[in-house]
Design brief:
alpha+beta, 9 helices, 8 strands, RmlC-like_jellyroll, cNMP-bd_dom
């Protein structure tokens, strides 16, 4: 079945009946995404929630000086979207782009909202998922305030070893709030200590 992975992901937090799973799968479509292809561009409204079957994505914001700031990454078995744009139906302030050849399962915003009304278990799944996302964002903000750059990088490598191997260093640097030059110094020092 093409949607086994996404169903397994949902089963971590809730249970759907066989009929509910079939109804949910009927709303899904698979999208192949080429490296450097955008799922979402700044200025457009986000109308989808995406589950990553394979590949790697980054979400980033471009400031007034034209500098990119990475907000988060998404790999296999993770979800990605712009919650702000999808919820408010306002244009997005960020971009989501594939770092690798990828495949996502996508569901339209309106269909997902209607399904959550019909199936409270699905609303429970997304509530728990969003809560975890908010907790992770809160902890990231605390690390930015309480850890120095080297500590943030070591924490990132330990918590997300698979990301540290797949994501270009310049993207990790901006995610951690570091300049590429400072990141290179830290990266070299951390590798020497390993």
């Amino acid at each position: 079945m093409p949607f086994n992975n996404i169903l397994q992901n949902i089963r971590r937090f809730t249970s759907l009946s066989t009929q509910e799973e079939k109804a949910f799968c009927a709303l899904l479509s698979i999208r192949k995404v080429k490296r450097k292809e955008f799922l979402l561009r700044e200025g457009t409204v986000c109308n989808f929630e995406w589950y990553v079957n394979s590949g790697c994505f980054r979400s980033f914001y471009i400031d007034k000086k034209g500098l990119e700031h990475n907000i988060y990454f998404a790999i296999e078995d993770w979800w990605t979207s712009d919650l702000y744009s999808r919820t408010t139906q306002e244009p997005s302030n960020c971009n989501i782009i594939a770092l690798e050849e990828s495949e996502v399962v996508q569901i339209k915003h309106a269909e997902l909202e209607a399904f959550m009304v019909e199936v409270p278990a699905m609303e429970r799944f997304f509530r728990i998922s969003y809560q975890q996302s908010l907790v992770n964002q809160h902890l990231k903000n605390l690390r930015l305030l309480s850890m120095n750059g080297e500590e943030r990088y070591i924490h990132f490598r330990e918590k997300y070893p698979q990301l540290a191997k797949r994501i270009p260093q310049k993207h990790i640097a901006t995610f951690l709030g570091l300049t590429p030059e400072f990141f290179n110094t830290i990266h070299a020092r951390v590798l020497r200590l390993r």
